[in-house]
Amino acid sequence: MTERDQDTTETDGEPLDLADQELVRDPFTAYAPVRERGRMVRGRVRGVDLMWVATRHDDIRTIMSDPRFTIDATAVPGASVAHRTEQTWQARGMYAGHEKYLRAGIFDADGTDHRRLRGLVTAAFSPRRVAALRPRIDAIAAQLLDRLPDHAENGVVDLVEHFARPLPITVICELIAVPEADRDRWRARSATLSAGVCGEELGEALAGMVEDARTLIDHHAAHPGGDLISELLSPRHRDRLSTDELVALITNLVVAGHITTVNLIANSTEALLTHPDQLALLREDPTLMPYAVDELMRYCGPVVRALPRYATCDTTVGSTPVQAGDAVLPIVSAANRDPAAFTDPDRLDLGRTRRGREPHLGFGHGAHRCLGAHLAQEEAAAALTALFDRVPDLRLATDPKDLRRGTNPVNWHLKALPVRL
Ligand code: HEM
Question: Which residue ranges does the record annotate as region Disordered (predicted)?
Answer without folding.
Answer: 1-20
